[in-house]
Amino acid sequence: MSSLLQVRDLRKSFGGVAATDGVTLDIHKGELHAIIGPNGAGKTTLIAQLSGALRPDSGVILYNGANITRRPPHRRARLGITRSFQITSLVMEMSVLDNVALAVQARDGHSFRFIRAARKIAHLRERARETLREVGLETRADAPTAELSHGEHRQLEIAVALATGAEMMLLDEPMAGLGGTDSARMIDFLKRLKGTRTILLIEHDMDAVFALADRISVLVYGRIIATGSPDEIRGNADVRHAYLGEE
Amino acid sequence: MKTPLQAMTKTGWITAAVLLLLGVVPPLLMWMGNEFYLLLSTRLVILAVAAVSLNLILGYGGMASFGHAAFIGIGAYAMGIPVYHEFYGGAEAIASTNGWFQIGLAVGASALFALITGAISLRTKGVYFIMITMAFAQMVFYLFQSLDEYGGDDGLVIEMRSELPWINLDDPLQMYFLAFGTLLVTMLLVHLIVNSRFGMVLRVAKGNDERVVTLGYNTYLYRLTAYVIAGVIAGFAGWMMANFSSFISPSMTGWTRSGDLMFMVILGGTATALGPVLGAAAFVLIEEALSSVTVYWNLPFGLMLIGVVLFARGGLLGMLHGRRGDK
Ligand SMILES: Nc1ncnc2c1ncn2[C@@H]1O[C@H](COP(=O)(O)OP(=O)(O)OP(=O)(O)O)[C@@H](O)[C@H]1O
Ligand SMILES: [Mg+2]
What we know:
The complex is a heterodimer. Chain A contains 9 helices and 10 strands. Chain A is of the alpha/beta class. Chain A has 2 domains: 1-80 and 169-247, 3-Layer(aba) Sandwich (Rossmann fold), CATH 3.40.50; 90-166, no CATH class. Chain A has a 6-stranded mixed β-sheet with strand order 6-7-8-3-9-10, with helices on both faces. Chain A has a 4-stranded antiparallel β-sheet with strand order 2-1-4-5, with helices on one face. In chain A, β1 and β2 (17-28) form a beta hairpin. In chain A, α4 (122-135) crosses α5 (150-163). The longest helix of chain A has 14 residues, at 122-135. Chain A is globular and about 55 Å long. Chain B has a domain at 38-253. Helices cover 73% and strands 1% of the residues of chain B. Chain B is built from 13 helices and 2 strands, in the order αααααβααααβαααα. Chain B has helices spanning 4-31, 35-60, 69-88, 99-121, 126-146, 172-195, 197-207, 209-214, 219-245, 255-268, 275-293, 298-311, 315-321; strands at 156-157, 247-248. The longest helix of chain B has 28 residues, at 4-31. Chains A and B meet through α2 and α3 of A and α6, α7, α8 and α9 of B. Residues 14, 17, 19, 37, 39-45, 86 of chain A line the site of adenosine-5'-triphosphate (ATP).
């Protein structure tokens, strides 16, 4: 299998805290790769470095074989890497459709276009609606984003990432704060999404991770202590000791 | 609770009414023999143009520039210096009373200044951005102050207004309609821009920069572009101001003037089409009223502004709506 994303000996410290402490990781094309780890393990910090929001202290990130370690985040997005946010990051004052349309617009040529009203550009609106249909939010398209439930916000967060057309999606705890039904719906949705994109999934919900992941890496104190299939991870003594055992 | 559509209609209605008043009342007063109010309105409208341009970057783009008056000064000196040389010789290359030439100079110099200072300032955020834009404006202030040939600190009386076909700027009514027409065009332009694809990126990046970057937009370039557009418009306002008052001086670029413009935008209501116009109107009228009563008009004025910021978060327009006017 070919690797879409390769991470080599990545390091990032905040003051004395090594949040990323020599991470080496291969994400295969088309797989759903989960990263699990306790609070403060450095999961979000890792995603931020992969998306370009944070600059690593050292190490290398390759995407499709190209060294992107120092590329700014907007150029990585153009290459096909996008992320969702652990803390919902939507434009609450705008409509649900507006949020998605801005993502669609990003791959529709440049946006240095000053005269025509963005909301009147039919193909942007239509493609945004299609994406909402995919995630099951089409009935909420014209609602102000602020009026959505927490569960719907999390879905919309994914819809925005989807609408960029990215090949590689970095999802930071898409199920954060979801209750039983919402959580099941999200798992269902990610199951359908799986295989159509390459997904790096960060998640605390163990049931979700074991149901979804092709492979799992366990991150503890900034280090990956194990990578393997769900069965291998379940059977790994270190992991049980360091992480699963705590539950 | 109003639906957005009803609120929009109401905003549109208020906007139309205010613009109609601005278009009709000052000329009427002039016609009735009261020139004072026409002149006051001309100043108001020119400042409104600058405030509308500042609102593009401050209100819609989240760039709290404390140096916007620099562009007014640059536009004004681009009008005054060519006229000076036309009358007193020297600098043949730029000596001119031709309005087109001066406008070209004002717009070009403003654009260049915006591009260079914006490129640097926009690397910073928050209070650093405020301080660095202010510092650049102060540089312009000190530069003008050091130009002894053009009156240094005292400034320069302009011998002759810009020459343009069709329009005679010595006629106060024509001067007013030039300013008023510019205001309409500027408001329309900003309205189009903020609703365009460019505007969507700019507005969302204001509160959610990381999100917008993650979608693949180089938000820095979008901000810089908006900064240059706003600078050019303010530069043009400066050219008008020099024509209106027949006088240029470094104080036009001072930080208090930049603060005034900021006040107008916040007072009227940021990120609204009409807000900056209301703000400019309130500013000019209150300044006029208070300054005829007391030389210490700054204090009550400042207190009033704080009141608006604290109690009416949508500014004057928001107060007219009885709600937060941030639509
Ligand atoms: N900007 C920052 N400045 C200082 N320390 C930081 C910063 N960001 C993260 N850290 C620290 O780095 C470590 C890893 O944080 P990170 O947010 O990546 O963990 P996480 O695995 O995502 O945790 P959670 O499960 O709570 O989301 C923590 O100790 C955190 O306090
Ligand atoms: Mg996290």
